[in-house]
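ok, trying the design again with the full structure, not the truncated one.
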């Protein structure tokens, strides 16, 4: 009888330890699920950059952008005009910052209304062949010079860059 009591006692201890291990495993799994890791995707060449542009057509709200009409037109040619048309047909507004030069001013003046775009100008000495778009939870870099694009999906990162672009517009001209 002593042996049975000893075995029962050990069995209860074992069950208790097993339950505690299961609780710890559940806690670890729950913490893993809540860990936020931004998704990063790379795109190469003209086709890759076009895929990124096509993704912006899924935007549920305004696209905030830092870019340059000159770079878009010289790198993407006819596609960029088709893209602007598609974006405006979908009703997706764009608020952009571009260098203050003759071509960008002319493009903005001629196409802003048609393409649902609001354009602000920054000093042209800061012009870059890089474009930055922020929409939904996505931050996208288009590097025309390097022929690549990078998409980061993260609420925190997208919100931060959206705010940076909004702050930059405060010191830009219309």
């Amino acid at each position: 009888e002593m042996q049975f009591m000893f075995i029962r006692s050990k069995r209860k201890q074992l069950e208790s330890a097993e339950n505690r291990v299961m609780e710890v495993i559940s806690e670890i799994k729950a913490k893993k699920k809540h860990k936020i890791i931004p998704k990063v995707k790379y795109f190469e060449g003209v086709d890759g950059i076009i895929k990124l542009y096509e993704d912006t057509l899924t935007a549920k709200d305004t696209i905030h952008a830092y870019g340059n009409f000159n770079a878009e037109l010289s790198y993407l040619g006819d596609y960029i005009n088709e893209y602007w048309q598609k974006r405006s047909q979908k009703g997706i507004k764009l608020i952009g910052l571009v260098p203050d030069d003759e071509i960008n001013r002319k493009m903005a003046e001629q196409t802003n209304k048609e393409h649902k775009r609001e354009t602000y100008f920054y000093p042209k000495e800061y012009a870059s062949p890089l474009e930055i778009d922020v929409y939904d939870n996505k931050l996208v870099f288009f590097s025309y010079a390097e022929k690549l694009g990078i998409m980061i999906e993260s609420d925190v990162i997208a919100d931060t860059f959206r705010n940076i672009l909004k702050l930059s517009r405060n010191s830009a001209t219309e």
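Keeping the full-length input from now on. The mean pLDDT is 86.
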